[in-house]
Amino acid sequence: MIMAPIADVSSRVNHTDSWRIQKPIIDYSKCIRCMICWKFCPDACIDVVDGGAIAAPSERTLKMEAPVIDMDYCKGCGICANECPEKCIEMVLDEKGED
Amino acid sequence: MPFSIPEEELMEPGHTACHGCGATLAMRYVLKGMGEKTVVSVPAACWAVIPGAMPNRTLKVPMVYTPFAATGAVISGLRGSLDIQGKSDYNVVGFAGDGGTADIGLQSLSGAMERGHNVFYIMYDNEAYMNTGVQRSGSTPFGAETTTTPVGKERNFKKQQKKIVADLMIAQGVPYVATATIAYPEDLIRKIGNAKKISGPKFIQILAPCPTGWYYPPEKSVEVSRQAVQSGIFPLFEYINGSIKVTKPSKPISVREYVSGQKRFAHLDDNDIEKIQNTVNKRMRYLLSMEKEGIFVLPAQ
Amino acid sequence: MRRGKIKMRVMQKHNAIMTGNEAVAVGVKLARVGFVSAYPITPQTTIVEKLAEMVANDDLDAKYIEVESEHSAMAAVFASELAGVRSYTATSSHGLLYMHEMLHWTAGQRLPVVMSVVNRALGPPWNIWSEQTDTMNQKDTGWMQVYCESNQEALDTILMGYRIAESQDVMLPLMSMEDAFILSHTSEPVIIPEQEKVDEFLPKLDLKFRIDLKNPMGYGSYTPPDGPFMELKKDLMESMKNSREVIQKVTGDFARTFDRDYSGLIEQYRMDDAKYALIASGTLASTGKYVVNQLRDEGEKVGLIRLRFFRPFPDEEILSAVSNLESVGVLDRSISLAANGFTATEVRSALYGKSDIPVTGFTAGLGGRDVRIDDFLDMFKTTKKGKGGNHYINVKEVK
Fold this sequence. Notes:
The structure holds 3 protein chains of 3 kinds. Chain B is an alpha/beta fold. Chain B has 10 helices and 9 strands. By secondary structure, chain C is of the alpha/beta class. Chain C has helices at residues 2-12, 20-30, 45-56, 70-82, 93-108, 133-136, 151-165, 195-201, 229-258, 284-297, 315-321, 342-351, 373-385, and strands at 15-19, 35-38, 63-66, 87-91, 114-119, 144-147, 174-179, 187-191, 218-219, 266-269, 276-281, 302-307, 309-311, 327-332, 359-363, 390-392. The B-C interface holds B 36-37, 39, 41, 48-49, 51-54, 56-57, 59-67, 69-70, 72-78, 80-85, 90, 107-108, 110-111, 114-115 and C 34-35, 37, 62-63, 65-69, 71-73, 75-85, 87, 101-102, 105, 211-213, 216-224, 227-228.
């Protein structure tokens, strides 16, 4: 069989966390689950998860799906924090070796 | 909360785009609009590198890499080949940067559009050759500093106006032409939905701000993109067979506010900024008059 | 009565009188090509006109896209082939040069496209006549190259070409050449193979890595120095090597099916007891054979080696063919500016360290200049002297 230049392995195998200088921390007690952070993530690394166990500003919000940032891929660009209408995402210095 | 854009992700994480890359968001939204029955063709561009090195792929749809000038012809060939195999329901999407569209790819784009294939051509416009290190393209706006239009002592920033490929496409009879930007994904995806209803060539120019080449902090990509629309620098419109609808900026801002956040414009003086503001005003008036009067060009088909 | 009989025989053998370009178009139709894209250039035009006509009349069930340049023609067939459809284009001269980038791309992506090239000179000055410099300039693009001698061979090479290119051990594109006007626009009797036999000989394209939504892949993404870049290039070279065996097998199968034997990569003409010979390709080989017969009648032990394939280069075949010769000449209807003839250089390289036979190079027939019987007599005479070197044939004194 011949070799053809094809690429068939998902880029998920490449963790891009080492690109990060600062990391986003979501204050779920203020997060209204508007999903604007999810919408604007250029790394498509904000997952939408069942929010049951996460803090929330209200009982109603608590039942809603919540954004969870996948730190294996977040490069720390800060768009989520910049666009968050509730200003509940804070960019903090990512201490290397913490994980 | 219901999502304002489709939840399905056809672009995966782990790609190698710069922090805060606008072009990456453009692809993410385009694929959300297209759906999984899509084949994408990308020429030399940032997007030829973003998926990462072989054997990695970052799209969940086939992606064909091509030489710089070839996008228009490759999507023509894909369309023809898929059609004769009964795969007319596949979306064929050319996804090229502004250099690959306004400059080296213009001939092949123009040919494909003239022949009227049922294809989408997405120009993701980051207003310079970003992948090669921010060199001037035909789509770089007046006033911008690039690595081949360095300001220096002679103030050699780009002195020519931006070549607006969307206008060229309208002029040559493409039935669907729109502009969009990453700050308004709902609008972008709605436009793709409208484009899908048209059997024929579709052209969408998406402004995709580039922190690396426009010299602003990466967290500002969406904000800068929004400012481009609000300032009238990049008017959003949708042209369908002779009628154009222009989105009037909801919270207008000045050109000065738009350029002040980007170091590529740092050298502009008051006269330069006034010149840009006048051009922006004139263009907006022109577009609105077109909206009222309608546009007549010989339709492609 | 007599007339009627002849007509009947003609029909039984599917004979026709047609130009090389028409023969090529018939070959494309018989190969059941599904996608054609081309840009017009003299003297290729009558191929693509004929194909457009076939599509218009439903004689050929293919998509035909009239692109705006040769670069786009090759880009379109690259894409259609990758989507899984047997694809075809044709060009000449500057059109081929304009395609150059896409030639590498198509071979590198391992797509078994077949293309016809009508060999034509390169400007400046403008010249539309026969010369092989255009395709010789593409010898390093990963395409197999066949130089045809007759309209029949031009037709048959399309059929053999797809079979060779699409072999799972090869998966490389192939270009088949005709000399401008001498074949492309000159009529000859041609036997048209029967469709059923062609279908048996040439199975459907089976592209293992075709575009597939169920298995979405990137095609041609970048690879860094430590990626599989060198490995991919080496594999392409290996496949080019493998193609020799495939070519032998396919020409053998073709001979059994259609009763026409093209004998693999080279054709040897009256070489059995020859002491010296000329290596030539395309229609120049025909004139060469005529002169060989003439010299044989005079008692000269002379022969001719016709190169059918230039890629892969038939080095072993040439080494074996010249083993009993005292000298050999190499005729190039092309010019490698600032170097010796393309074929002469390849032949010298093939023989280096393996044979001491003197190799004399000839450059002739540029820009369509006739290469006459007298010119061949000169070349054979010079070859026989065995002094080597490189000579221009029939160049006039410019005052």
